[in-house]
Automatic annotation (TrEMBL):
Organism: Aquiflexum gelatinilyticum
InterPro entries, per database record: Cyt_c-like_dom (IPR009056), Cyt_c-like_dom_sf (IPR036909), Cytochrome_c_Peroxidase/MauG (IPR051395)
Entry protein name: Cytochrome c domain-containing protein
Keywords from the UniProt entry: Heme, Iron, Metal-binding
Span of domain Cytochrome c: 165-358, 368-511
MF terms in GO: cytochrome-c peroxidase activity; electron transfer activity; heme binding; metal ion binding
Amino acid sequence: MSTLFRRYWVLFLFPILVAGISIDGIQKWVIQYGSDIPKVWTDEAIKDWELPNFNPEFSAKPVSAAFYYNLPERVIYKTYTVYHPDHEPEGYWDWLHSIDAEIELDESKLLTEEDFVKAGELLFDYPIDSLGAIISKENVRDVGFYEYSEMPLSKDGIMPFARWIVTGKGKVYLGNLSCGMCHTKVMPDGSLLKGAQGSFPGDKAFAYGLQKAPENDVKAVSGFLFSSPWAEGDPHGELLSKKKQDILDAYAAVPTGAFGRQGTSILFPPQIPDLIGVKDRKYLDHGGLGQHRNIEDLMRYIAMNQSLDFLNMYGSFNPLGLNDEVINSGKPIMFPGTYDRHSDKQLYALAKYVYSIKAPENPNKPSQLTEKGKVIFAEQGCVTCHTPPYYTNNKLTPADGFEIPEEHYDKYDIFDISVGTDPGYTTKTRRGTGYYKVPSLRGLWYRGPFFHDASLAKLEDVLDPKRLESEYVPTAFIGAGIKNRAVSGHEFGLELDPEDKKALIAFLKTL
Ligand code: HEC
Ligand code: HEC
C-alpha cells in the first residue's frame, strides 16, 4: 500500500485539488462579496479608536453600541438637482412637487466589489439631513444667497453642494450634509472633482441664513458647534459673549476650502482635506484625532462625523446640553444627522468608494526645472517629514505648548518636533489632540488654501518669509476684525533664492 501510494500520490492529490477549487468556487457563490462586513460600533473598538483630547479629562466618550444600533437605518431616497434660480428649467419646481418618493438603494442587490463602490458614490452624494442644517430651501431659491456667499456653480447653473430629497408627493426637502457638500471641488472649467478639497463656501452660506435668526438662536447654534469651555481662555465662550453681528462676521471670515464643522471652530477653522489618497494616511483630521488602521476605522470616522459626535460626553459636558442618562435612554434625539444612521453595509460601500477615488491626470509633467526642484526638496530636508511615496511620514507632530504624555510614544507614531504653526485648532477645540499630523503633499496642484487653518492661498505664500512678520496680510484665512497677522511656523525653504523656490514649487506641483 505504501509503495503504491508513493508511486501514485499525485493521483490522490488530484481529487483534493479539484475539491479545493470547487469549494472556493462555491464559497464565491454562496458567500457574497462584503458578507464579512465588520461591525463598526462596538464598545470595545470605539473606546480607544480616537486620540485623547489635549486635556485628557475631556476626551470624548461616544454613545454606546446599544444606542448606536438602536438608531434606525437610513433610507436612501432618490434625490434631484438644485439649480440657481436663474437656471431652473421651466416647470421643474411643480414637477418636483408632483412626483412620488422613490427608494434608490437596495442593499440586497450589492453583490460585487464594483456594486459596493457604485453604491458608495451614490451615498457620497446623499444628503443625510433634511432639516436645513447649513442651508435652507429658501436660501437656494434666493439670488441674494448666491451673491453673498460667492457660491460657485457647475455647468448649466447647477448648485452642486445640495440635492432635493422627495420623501412623498409634495414632500420636497433641501438635503444638506452629503460628503459631496464639503468634499467636491468645482474646477475652473465647471466640472466637478469629487473627493478634492471642496469649494462650498459653507460658513458664508450658513451666515447668510443666520442673518434672519434671533441673536439667541445664533448663540445657541454656535454653542452646539464649537463650545469647548475647558480650553484655556475659553475663546468660544468669549465669541458667544459678543453681539450677533460679530459672530456672523466670524463665520463669514472662514474662506472657501476650510469649514468650521462641529467640534472644530470658526476661530481656528480646519482646512478641508483632500480625500484622494486617504487610504494611505494613518490618522484622520488635522490633529490626527481618528486612527486609521483599516477600513473599519474609516467607517467609524464616517459614522461618528455625520453628527454623532454631538452626542459625545466630554467630561460632564455635552454640546447639546444633554447628559448620559438622556443620551442612552433609547429615545430619538431630533438633531440634524443624529436621528438615523447608515447601515454597516452602507458605511462599507462609502469607505470603499472613498478609497477608490483617483486624482485626475496631473498636467504638470517632469522637466529640468522640476528635477532641480526635486533635488532641493531633498536637500532642504522636506523628505524627512514629507517622505515619498505618500509625501508624508504619517506621523504626528506636537503643537507649540503641548507636552507629549509619556504613554503616547508607545501608542502613536510621533515625530517629536513642533513645526510651530498656530496651536489654536489643536489646543482649543473639541477635536484638539495637541498634535498636527504631517499632511501628504500629493495633489498640491489642485489644492489650496494651505496649512491646517487655510491661512495661505498659494504655495508661493508658504515659502514667503514675509508671512512671519506681524504686518503680513494672510492671503486666505485672516480672522474676523483682523487686518494683519503673522502666519508663523513651518519655516522650511523660506531662505531659498527666487530661482530655487520656483524650481521647488514646480516640483511640488507634479506630486
Ligand atoms: C459640512 C462639511 C463636511 C461634510 C458634510 C463632510 N466632511 Fe469630511 N471633513 C470636513 C472637514 C472640515 C474636515 C477636516 C476636519 C478636521 O481636520 O478637523 C473633514 C475631514 C474628513 C476626513 C479626514 C481626512 C484626513 O485626511 O484627515 C475624511 C476621511 C472625511 N472628511 C470624509 C468624509 C465623508 C466620507 C463624508 C460623508 C459621509 C464627509 N467627510 C462629510 C468637512 C465635511
Ligand atoms: C519637521 C517636519 C516637516 C518638514 C521638515 C517639512 N514639513 Fe511641510 N509640513 C509639516 C507639517 C506638520 C505640516 C502641517 C502644518 C500645519 O498645517 O499646521 C506641513 C505642511 C506643509 C504644506 C502645506 C500642506 C497643506 O495641505 O496645507 C506644504 C506645502 C509643505 N508642508 C511643504 C514643505 C516643504 C516644501 C518642505 C521643505 C522645504 C517641508 N514642508 C518641510 C511638516 C514638515
